[in-house]
């Protein structure tokens, strides 16, 4: 089966969906609300499950060239600098760190030129037994399926699932930044009620994130850089230095939300993908990875047919249990890592875990999430 699709949202999930559809011989029009295409945010890591999806999209080699191995999961520290677990020199790591913009660019290059229309804010949609029609100010388009990949505050989700709960504030806030740095291996520093993450990035940079509990969303400061530095001024090197080296205008402050489970990701010829379906906290590093999985599974289902409706139901059946379990797990991890009461228990458990067992968990198949394999996508059609 082949056809035409509309993808709402030009972020990592939306572009991955368009690239996957292109791989199976479909045409995909991506509608992006922003006037200029780009990816917000700073850095992230991708686990083996996500990298296999990038291989399925034929951009895995380019992605690995743009990435830097990060030992963030193997270097666990306390604010005074002591190590709870430490990666040995030369230890392999399954995690690769990216600047979000680099991965976004690779996915954009994987879709045909002219596939993305910016400055297009969807205002309505209508579907019947044959097609879906989406409208925006001054225009409309129709396709076989519509893929809503427009983020945690998805317009597609609101139009078709108006009673779905809004994003849920998780009681945590985060500061993010990218600073010049060379040779950092990546680490997580666990403090009482907070943690500080470091990922090395290409071009001698490092991504950092400080996550802490906060009773209400929307708390902001005149000087966000000074605010976050005040939280970690006495933490070990290089944490204060990384923040100090970050331009003030490049320090981002966000509140952490996720989505409560939806009863379905599909309504007829419309499917939700990525954060529009299952936005999750960053505590398992799986937000973008699960979006990549969605894209490959969706394309494989459409390639197998026999109809759009059947394919989308298959996608929903396969993706909803896994993604909703990941949301729950990330939510629970976040509660533990930003709970002062849980800090002593967590650090004790990490200390007591044998290093051999810890390292076994950091292999590419070290946990059920990382072991996932994508379905096969048919090879691109040969040009006539």
Structure description:
Its cofactor is FAD. Residues 317-340, 365-384 are annotated as: Disordered. GO terms for molecular function: FAD binding; monooxygenase activity. InterPro entries: FAD-bd, FAD-dep_Monooxygenase_BioMet, FAD/NAD-bd_sf. The protein is 35% helix and 24% strand. The chain contains 13 helices and 19 strands. The strands form 4 sheets. Strands 6-5-14-15-16-13-17 form a 7-stranded mixed beta sheet. Strands 8-2-1-12-19-18 form a 6-stranded mixed beta sheet. The relative contact order is 0.18. The model has no long low-confidence stretch (mean pLDDT 94).
Question: How would you summarize the topology of this molecule?
Answer:
Layout: E1 4-8, H1 12-23, E2 27-31, E3 43-46, H2 48-56, H3 60-66, E4 68-69, E5 76-77, E6 83-85, E7 96-99, H4 100-109, E8 116-117, E9 122-127, E10 132-136, E11 139-143, E12 146-148, H5 155-160, E13 168-180, E14 187-191, E15 194-201, E16 205-213, H6 224-232, H7 239-244, E17 252-258, E18 266-267, E19 270-272, H8 275-278, H9 287-304, H10 308-337, H11 340-352, H12 355-360, H13 368-371
Parallel strand pairs: 1-2, 1-12, 2-8, 5-14, 12-19
Antiparallel strand pairs: 3-7, 4-7, 5-6, 9-10, 10-11, 13-16, 13-17, 14-15, 15-16, 18-19
């Amino acid at each position: 089966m082949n056809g035409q699709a509309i993808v709402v949202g030009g972020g990592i999930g939306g572009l991955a969906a368009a690239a996957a559809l292109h791989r199976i011989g479909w045409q995909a029009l991506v509608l992006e609300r922003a006037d200029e295409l780009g990816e917000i945010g700073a850095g992230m890591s991708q686990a083996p499950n996500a990298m296999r999806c990038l291989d399925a999209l034929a951009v895995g080699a380019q992605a690995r060239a743009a990435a830097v191995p990060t030992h963030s999961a193997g270097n666990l520290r306390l604010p005074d600098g002591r190590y709870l677990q430490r990666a040995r020199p030369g230890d392999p790591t399954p995690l690769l760190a990216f600047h979000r913009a680099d991965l976004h660019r690779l996915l954009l290059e994987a879709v045909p030129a002219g596939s993305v229309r910016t400055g297009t804010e969807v205002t309505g949609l209508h579907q019947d037994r044959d097609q879906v029609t989406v409208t925006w100010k001054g225009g409309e388009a129709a396709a076989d399926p519509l893929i809503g990949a427009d983020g945690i505050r998805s317009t597609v989700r609101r139009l078709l699932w108006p009673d779905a709960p809004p994003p849920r504030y998780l009681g945590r806030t985060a500061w993010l930044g990218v600073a010049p740095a060379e040779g950092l291996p990546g680490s997580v520093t666990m403090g009482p009620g907070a943690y500080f993450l470091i990922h090395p990035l290409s071009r001698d940079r490092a991504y950092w994130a400080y996550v802490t509990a906060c009773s209400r969303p929307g708390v902001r400061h005149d000087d966000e850089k000074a605010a976050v530095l005040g939280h970690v001024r006495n933490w070990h090197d290089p944490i204060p230095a990384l923040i100090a080296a970050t331009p003030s205008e490049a320090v981002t402050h966000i509140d952490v939300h996720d989505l409560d489970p939806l009863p379905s990701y599909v309504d007829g010829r419309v499917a939700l993908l990525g954060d529009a379906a299952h936005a999750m906290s960053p505590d398992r590093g799986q937000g973008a990875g699960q979006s990549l999985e969605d894209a490959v599974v969706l394309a494989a289902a459409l390639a197998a047919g026999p109809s759009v409706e059947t394919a989308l139901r298959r996608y929903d059946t396969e993706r909803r249990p896994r993604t909703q379990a990941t949301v729950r797990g990330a939510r629970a991890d976040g509660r533990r890592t930003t709970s002062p009461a849980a800090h002593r228990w967590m650090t004790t458990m990490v200390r007591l875990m044998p290093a051999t067992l810890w390292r076994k968990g950091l292999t590419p198949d070290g946990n059920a999430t990382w072991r996932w394999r994508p379905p096969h996508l048919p090879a691109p059609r040969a040009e006539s």
